[in-house]
From TrEMBL:
InterPro entries hit by this protein: FAR, FAR_C, FAR_NAD-bd, NAD(P)-bd_dom_sf
Compartment(s) where it occurs, according to its Swiss-Prot or TrEMBL record: Membrane
Transmembrane segments: 353-377
PANTHER family noted in UniProt: FATTY ACYL-COA REDUCTASE, MALE STERILITY PROTEIN 2-RELATED
GO BP annotations, alphabetical order: long-chain fatty-acyl-CoA metabolic process
Organism name: Stomoxys calcitrans
Gene Ontology molecular functions: alcohol-forming long-chain fatty acyl-CoA reductase activity; alcohol-forming very long-chain fatty acyl-CoA reductase activity
Keywords assigned by UniProt, alphabetized: Lipid biosynthesis, Lipid metabolism, Membrane, NADP, Oxidoreductase, Transmembrane, Transmembrane helix
Protein's membrane topology: Multi-pass membrane protein
Fatty acyl-CoA reductase C-terminal domain: residues covered: 361-455
Gene designation per UniProt: 106091539
UniProt keyword RNA-binding present: no
Record's protein name: Fatty acyl-CoA reductase
Keyword tRNA processing carried by entry: no
Amino acid sequence: MSELTPVQQYYKGKTVFITGASGFMGKVLLEKLLYSCYELKEIIMICRSKRGKSPESRLEDMWKLPIFQRIKDERPHVLKKVTMFAGDITNEMLGLSEENLKYVAENTNIVFHMAATLKLEGNLTDAVNMNLAGTRRAMDVARKMKNLEAFVHLSTAFCNCDQEIMYEKVYEFPHKPEDLMRMAEWMDVQTLDAVTPKLLSPHPNTYTYTKRLAEIYVRDQYNTMPVIIARPSIVCPAYKEPMPGWVDSLNGPVGVMTAGGRGVIRSMLCDGELEADMIPVDVAINNLIIIPYGFCQNKERPPEIPIYNITMPKSCRRSWMWILNNGVELNKKYPLSWPLWYPNATLTLNKHYHWFNVIFFMWLPAILIDILLTIFGQRRFMIYIQKRIKVGLEVLQFFTTRKWDFRNDNLMKLIKTLNEKEFTVFELQCEDKEYDIEGYLEQCCLGGRLYIGKESIDTVPRAKVILTTMYILDKVCKTLICGWFFYWIASKIGLVDLIAEIFES
């Protein structure tokens, strides 16, 4: 066994408590801690019943995922270090039984609070209950922990969207977290929905709004608790670990790429010249792991709550147009099987052009397909999909039409203090490191295809044949639609009658 690095040594004998361990980032955190910090004592995670499955069966299903394969191959014994308790962040004391709560309080050293609702279009009641009140409940449990060294609250880099430059600090807001939590308790969903637009401003959705107030709540506890805030930007598939391109969530760019690859997204309001600030999930998780270590190395407690913007160096960023163009080429190389239409998305800031594309090349085909499905006695689904996409794109356009400037001085300063050996264990950002962004995008494409679409690489030849067929069908339909549209315009302005008169004469 090789000598432990300082970070690995820090986790030796420690007990880690995780909320949200069944989520995309949570799984990667769980895997990385077990694989690289294998000398830790225990990982306690909470999980609720879902879709008829008990917490125990959900854990068993999780171990079957490919991301845990290297652990089963190389260090299977560490899986026994995971303790799973039934729990739910929407319940007081996280829904832990009295016995389990006592166990958590007596044994936990480090907390990673990652549970949240990521629904940008979700209602305010649910967002408050999960993102704000859920954080308060997690901290209520943490206050009982006798040996707590660090409580890491996972936020988002986009929670202060009214700022031109996002520094690593908590920004004030007129609303108090406690007031909003009380309001969500006594006000019914419909009434709260009615006042939500006024409450949110300048936030575009309930997610960033509640995450911002959660940060304020966490900040206010810093005098009595060892709390830290971590803010990742757009989290994308894995760069290297546990396997390149691994992803199991349709949130963010992967969902857009998948929908685009299926041909159901044809247009998107986006400034193609702006750079997308994305970070691979494994790099983000490695940042999270080193944060408690860095916090506990301080000889004196920092006067202000430590905050880390978890973002990639500027050299790694690419424009949305670059991502689209390369994504289109990759889709030709690795097309998805059975797309609903030929993939050919457009980025534009022209709302009129955008809606022309949406109406004629998204909604009209959806209606026609559903009519055909009805005729043949099949279940309709295309209009439903387009309704979901419409809501999703309206939410996303706030982020794709604005420039974002995140400063991560605290994070880079922490990384620079690390021993060189850490970089052999943890993939971390370095300003002078060259990243293969083109190769990474290809891995994202393959990862989405394999882990989301469940399509192995040997289906590519057949998918290319289908793509060619869809291309021909797309061109024929576009010609007919555009021809009909211009004929309608010509008839309205009298051009059709004029041409008819010319030919008759």
